[in-house]
Amino acid sequence: MYTINMKLILGDCLEKLKDLPDNSVDSVVTDPPYGIGFMNKEWDNPQKHRELIEREKKRSEERFEQGKSPAKAGFSKGVQPGLKIGTAKEGKWFQEWCEEWGKECLRVLKPGGYLLSFSAPRTYHRMTTGFEDAGFEIRDQIMWVFGSGFPKSLNLGEGWGTALKPAHEPICVARKPLSEKTNKENMTKWGTGGLNIDDCRIEYKDDKPHSIPTEREGGNSWNKDYQRTEDWIPNNTGRWPANIIFDEEAGQVLDQQSGISGTGKKKIGKERKSFFRGENEIFGGGTKTSQRLEDYGDKGGASRFFYCPKASKKDRDEGLDNFEEYTSGKNGRGLDRMCSECGTKMVNQKDCVCENPNWIDIPKKNFHPTVKPTDLMLYLIKLVTPKGGIVLEPFMGSGSTGKAAMRGGYDFIGIEKEEEYFKISKARIENELK
Fold first, then answer.
1. 255 touches 301 (CB < 8 A)
2. How far is residue 169's CA from residue 70's CA, in Å, rounded to a whole number?
C-alpha cells in the first residue's frame, strides 16, 4: 500500500522554498495573497510589509558592499510609505514579488510541471506577468465562477456606486518549459508536461442505447437509417474539461437562465477513405480511422457542461473540534456575518428586528477569510499532477490544498508564514488522513 507523505513548513516561502531541491515537485497549486489589502489583512497589504522591506533593503546594501548588484527583488523600490493600493507603483511591487517566489517555484518544479495560481481580477495581469518574467509559459486561464460574492461599493447617490459584484477569480495556468523535444518524451522522463484530461472529465450518465449510423456502400456519406445494438456499451467517459468552473450556487443560477435542453447526436467512429496526403499515400488513396464521438444523450441545464463542485458545510471546520470559535468583531464583511444582538444572518437581514443592528463576522473555528472548497482544489491537483506525485503549496493558508492532496493520494509540501493559520491547516490536513 502506498504511503502518503506530507511536509508542513512554518515560515516565509521566499526563504523556505530555497531549501527544496531542484526539479523535485510535480505541481504547484496555490492560492497566494492577491495584493489588494483584503479585509485589511497584513499578509495581503503590501504597505504593511515593513519587515520584508527592511530585509530587502539590508540585502541590497550587503550586496552593494560586496561589489555586487543590489538585490533584484525590488521591494524597497516598489513600496513606499503611504502608497495607495491599486496604483501603478503598488502593482509593480506585487508583480516583482510574484516573480520572486515564481522563480523558486520554477526551480523546484520538474520540467513540464504546472503552476496553478488563483488571483484577483484586478491584479491577475501583474501576477501572470511576474510568472512569465520568472520563466514560465502561460498556457491558459481557468475562471472560478461563484455566486456568493458581495459588492463592496460606496453609494454615490442617484443609483451610482463604485464596484461590481465579485463573481469570479481567475486561475493562471503556467508551465515550466519542457526539457525534452516533445511533450510525450517529457512525460516519459519526468511524468509531467500534460493535462490529465480523462480524470477531470465532466461526469454525466448515459443510460440508454442510442442510434448508431451505418455507412452506405460505395460512398462516404452516412445512411439515414439507424440500427440499435444489443451489445451497446454506455459512453460514460465524460465531457472534456473546460477552462471555466462554477460553484454549486453559480451553476444553479446558470441552469435557471439556460433552461433544460438536450444534446444533439454525434456519429460513431468508422473507417473511411482518407482525403489527406499521408505517408506513402497519394491524395485520397488510403484509409484512415476518424475518431467520432457518440452522442451524450442527456438533458439538463447548461451547468452540466462544466465542473461544479458540491458545497460542504462541514468542509471548512473538519478536524478543528478542539479549536475555539473566533470572530473579528465589527469588521464583518459581505454575507458571511450576523447581527450580534439577535443572531440574524446578513443574508436574511430583513428579518433583523434590532433598532441598531451590530453586524459582526459569524464566529468560526476556521477563521481564514479565503477558504477554498476541498473538492475544487482536488480537481485542480488531478488536472496537473501525475498519480502519487508531489504537490507544493507555498501559501498554505487554512490547508485546503493539502487536505485535497491527502484525499486524492498525493504527496504534499505546504508552507505558511502565519502561525495561527498554520495550526488550522495542520489540523485539517492531518484529519483527512484519519
1. yes
2. 35
Q: Are 148 and 213 in contact (CB under 8 A)?
A: no
Long-range CB contacts (< 8 A, 24+ apart) of 49-58? 49/75, 49/79, 53/79
Nearest to 41 by CA among 417, 428, 429, 424: 417
pLDDT in tens, 34-68: 887 544 455 445 444 445 555 555 666 776 677 66
SS3 of residue 245 by DSSP:
strand
CB distance 398 to 31 below 8 Å: no
Identify the burial level of 21 via C-beta atoms within 10 angstroms of its C-beta, where 0-12 means exposed, 13-18 middle and 19 or more buried.
Answer: exposed
CA distance readout (Å), 290 to 117, 185, 209: 37, 25, 22
Asked whether the beta carbons of 29 and 382 are under 8 A apart, the reply is no
CB 206 within 8 A of CB 297: yes
Q: Which helix (H) or strand (E) holds 92?
A: helix 88-108
Query: What is the Cα Rg of the chain in Å?
Result: 26
User: What is this structure's pTM?
Assistant: 0.72
* 366 — pLDDT class (breaks 50, 70, 90): low
Domain extent listing, the chain = 6-45+85-195+369-432, 204-237+264-297, 329-361
pLDDT tens digits for 320-352? 556 666 665 444 445 566 777 777 776 566 668
- Angstrom distance (rounded) from CA 72 to CA 74: 5
- Amino acid identity of residue 290, one-letter, is S
Alpha-carbon span 105 to 116, nearest angstrom: 11
Tens-digit pLDDT profile for residues 415-434: 999 888 898 889 889 988 87
**201 near 239, Cβ under 8 Å?**
yes
Residue 43: partners with Cβ closer than 8 Å, 6 or more residues away: 33, 417, 418
User: Pick from 421, 331, 417, 345: which is nearest to 39 by CA?
Assistant: 331
Pick the CATH number of 6-45+85-195+369-432 from 3.40.640.10, 3.30.10.20, 3.40.50.150, 3.40.50.920: 3.40.50.150
Enclosing H/E stretch for 21: none
Name the DSSP class of 39.
G
Contacts of 197 (CB under 8 A, 6+ apart): 240, 241
Burial 245-261 (b: 16+ CB within 10 A, else e): bbbbebbebbbeeeeee
* Three cell numbers, residue 391: 504537490
Strands (E) across 291-410 are located at 299-300, 337-339, 359-361, 390-393
Please give the pLDDT value at position 127.
95
